[in-house]
């Protein structure tokens, strides 16, 4: 019974972001978001994912479930916010009224899956 239950639990693990609590040395290089991420066994992996395929520009606002922000945004940078646990991507993005300052906290969309960063569904 116990084994069956644990197997079920492992098979249904849901990742819900929060990668900055287990990754350090966070970076944004071009559109690659990454960090040095801890594995369950204690070792680390320098892991990154592409943000341009997942973040878009909706009339001057950075948005999730989209893509291609790079082509219409400029001066992008990251910060870890006041808590030090956020991963805030800030840019100036083009809109129908010109360039707008906009930011999005992508910490909650990205999970550390045993040392490999992955976007949540
Ligand atoms: C931890 O796991 C990784 C990936 O499977 C492996 O490459 C590494 O050698 C392991 N490290 C330790 C300390 O067990
Ligand atoms: C992780 O990889 C990135 C991209 O290759 C590199 O710029 C960065 O220095 C690496 N970080 C560490 C701590 O090795
Ligand atoms: C480290 O992370 C990268 C993804 O950024 C992944 O492709 C690679 O397999 C990982 N390396 C190990 C040994 O887990
Ligand atoms: C900004 O967006 C406007 C409206 O969509 C467009 O006409 C203009 O060409 C864009 N400018 C740049 C620099 O992308």
From TrEMBL:
Q: Which residues form the signal peptide?
A: 1-16
Keywords (A to Z) from UniProt: Signal
InterPro entries, A to Z:
Cyanovirin-N (IPR011058), Cyanovirin-N_sf (IPR036673)
What residue stretches are annotated with the Cyanovirin-N domain? 18-119
The protein here is known as Cyanovirin-N domain-containing protein
Query: What is the species listed in this Swiss-Prot or TrEMBL entry?
Result: Orbilia blumenaviensis
